[in-house]
Write a structure and sequence with these properties.
The complex is a heterodimer of chains A (345) and B (289). Chain A has 345 residues and is α/β, with parallel strands linked by helices. Chain A contains ten helices and 14 strands. Chain A has two domains: 12-146 and 277-300, Response regulator (Rossmann fold), CATH 3.40.50; 148-274 and 311-335, 3-Layer(aba) Sandwich (Rossmann fold). Classes of the chains: A alpha/beta (345), B mainly alpha (289). The interface between A and B is large, with 52 and 51 residues.
């Protein structure tokens, strides 16, 4: 029995040590008096070439321009997330940022416990009470939300116009309302330019693991491409790596998400629906620094430059000029409010 | 959906399960509970990625993947056989350790806690449907080869004896500990190949890319009643359910969530003894005394 305990404890210690080893060297030489910012990253962590890297880039430029002390934590397992946030709050950071919808509940609870600390949550999911009314976030929480449906609408139109097969695909990660927003906008975009097109929408799963299952992503994408789909838009984190792999194998097109993913499969990425996580994080840090921080819902869409799609040297040859002009025009119509993009299926 | 596409997709999805379930069968037949398959797979996937990245050859990567599984298998064996630790606890610890270790070295080697760079791999052309991947063939062969080994060789008899009645085996001069070390080491290497397949098919390592496949393999071992061929059939059945779930998604025929429950429901039914009796090896999990 004692030996069992020793082995178990030893393995747990190694495990815990490795989990937090990720945080090494991220406390950039603390300057006294500067704003202290703590950031907890989501599954995927730094180097995901998407969402977390976006938050990192925003914090990085804030460090250079505004000079706060920033500390990052990359949680391993799910339960470490709350612990990471709590650790930062207990250290009396001025601002604690959770990168990902999955932090919503933890941040809501912690914000009530630490009313003097400012919190921000990227993709904050608003909870709803029994009667279906939206519960606003606590006064010290900034909910950074993106109107992904608007960007998805544009890439949907692009997919339908470029795909030319009356059938376009969508691969989502976890089957949750946040990802349904992408699907809903995409669907609306496809239908807007091609009313008789069908959208094949599939999800990798119903747990957070669905965002990091490239094997499943590849099989989903292969079956879609085999059924006659020519363009697939993925909103599935690392699972999307499998979608790009399938695009390479079948020599068809995929659309990236959150960040410019053109380099994941050069020549096979039609465009990417980008989300300005970097600008939102920068903005939150700046507000705390200038003491203008206020809780509430911050919404970023096409109008604010919070979402958009990539059109540059790398993918110009894949998008005909008339298609590009059409999509640009749609963008203006959404900004002007002439097209209303749905955010639910 | 044509039947050929359905079949090939089922096989591709089944390969990681087939390797891992074979690994599970051999360890459990020797009396060591094999909850650590997920960890072996993840280690195998990561070691293969490292090996391929630095050598440029997927074959070297394959060997590195096997080596990674071997190391974790030996850690598992050492804790459970030499130190007689609780096998369930060690199994879970190995899985957690694999997540931490792979992420730690992922950051160290590639400065990313999410993905490795793209590597060479097997199976480039979609037209081949995955059949140009040697690991696919190895996966299909793993169960028959293991069955031959377990039932037709002297060594296989010893493995079974050690798992059923270690005292009797010891009384005729078989070293129980040695047979168990070898079986668990083999288990680690076999299961690791499942991870190698994933990484080389994907041309990349992604943090926690095994996504619970090791646990599905554990279910397949139990559902297959600790027999390599039946476990392999269970793997194929589970993979077919997954393929069906992929194909049905987006259609309105039947809720795809319902189809994805099939493997787990079947396993519970099998454990409850509805379909024949699931009798584990008699000495399974009993190194403690």
């Amino acid at each position: 029995m004692r030996k069992l305990l020793i082995v178990a404890v030893a393995l747990l210690v190694v495990h815990a040590a490795l989990l937090f080893a990720g945080g090494r060297g991220v406390t950039e030489s603390a300057r006294p008096g500067a704003t202290d910012v703590g950031i907890v990253l989501d599954v995927g962590g730094r180097g995901d070439k998407s969402f977390n890297d976006g938050a990192y880039a925003g914090a990085d430029s804030a460090t250079r321009i505004l000079g706060p002390n920033i500390r990052f934590i990359e949680p391993g397992e799910g339960s470490d997330r709350e612990a990471g946030l709590r650790l930062l709050a207990a250290e009396e950071m001025d601002l604690v940022i959770g990168v990902g919808f999955i932090f919503s509940d933890d941040i809501t609870n912690l914000a009530k416990e630490y009313p003097a600390i400012s919190f921000a949550c990227v993709d904050y999911a608003l909870s709803v009470d029994d009667k279906g009314n939206v519960i606003p976030p606590p006064p010290n929480v900034a909910a950074l939300k993106f109107r992904e449906e608007e960007g998805s609408f544009l890439v949907g139109a692009l997919a339908a116009l470029v795909g030319k097969s009356k059938k376009v695909g969508f691969v989502g990660g976890m089957d949750i309302p946040l990802i349904h927003k992408f699907e809903a906008g995409y669907r609306a975009g496809v239908k807007h330019v091609c009313p008789d097109c069908t959208v094949v929408a599939q999800y990798a799963g119903v747990t957070p693991e669905a965002f990091k299952n490239p094997g499943k992503g590849k099989e989903l994408a292969l079956s879609q491409y085999q059924s006659g789909v020519n363009v697939i838009f993925h909103a599935s984190g690392s699972t999307g790596q499998g979608v790009f792999e399938a695009a390479r194998a079948t020599r068809k097109l995929a659309i990236g998400v959150d960040a410019d993913q053109a380099d994941e499969a050069p020549g096979f990425v039609l465009t990417s629906m980008v989300k300005g996580v970097d600008a939102a994080v920068f903005d939150a840090i700046q507000r705390v620094q200038n003491k203008t921080f206020a809780g509430g819902i911050y919404s970023f869409g096409l109008k604010e430059g919070g979402v958009g799609y990539i059109y540059d040297e790398k993918n110009k040859h894949l998008i005909p000029d008339d298609v590009h002009a059409r999509v640009e025009q749609l963008e203006q119509e959404i900004i002007a409010g002439r097209i209303k993009v749905p955010s639910t299926r | 959906m044509n039947p050929f596409d359905f079949l090939t997709q089922t096989l591709r999805i089944a390969i990681p399960y087939l390797f891992a379930a074979s690994g599970g069968v051999i360890a459990e037949r020797a009396g060591i509970i094999s909850l650590s398959l997920e960890g072996y797979m993840l280690t195998g996937a990561f070691s293969a990625t490292l090996g391929t990245f630095y050598s440029g050859s997927p074959w070297i990567g394959l060997l590195c993947g096997i080596l990674g599984g071997l190391v974790f298998g030996l850690i598992h064996a050492l804790a459970t056989i030499r130190y007689r630790a609780d096998q369930v606890v060690v199994g879970i610890a190995i899985n957690l350790l694999a997540i931490g270790v792979t992420r730690f070295f992922l950051q160290l080697a590639f400065e990313s806690s999410s993905n490795s760079p793209r590597i060479e791999g097997f199976g480039a052309s979609a037209a081949a449907r995955g059949f140009d991947n040697p690991l696919l063939w190895m996966g299909l062969l793993s169960a028959p080869v293991l069955a031959f080994f377990l039932y037709k060789t002297r060594y296989g008899l010893r493995v079974r004896a050690v798992g059923e009645h270690p005292d009797a085996a010891a009384s005729v001069g078989i070293s129980v500990a040695r047979i168990r070390y070898l079986s668990v080491a083999l288990s680690g290497m076999l299961a690791a190949l499942g991870g190698v397949f994933l990484a080389l098919d994907q041309h990349q390592f992604t943090d926690q890319m095994t996504a619970g496949r090791g646990f599905i393999a554990v279910a397949a071992v139990i559902f297959g009643r600790w027999d390599p061929v039946r476990a392999a059939l269970a793997c194929l059945l589970f993979a077919a359910a997954e393929t069906l779930q992929i194909q049905l998604q987006g259609t309105e025929v039947i809720a795809s969530q319902f189809v994805s429950m099939i493997p787990y429901v079947l396993t519970i039914i099998a454990l409850a003894g509805v379909v024949g009796r699931a009798v584990p090896p008699a000495a399974l999990g009993k190194t403690g005394e």
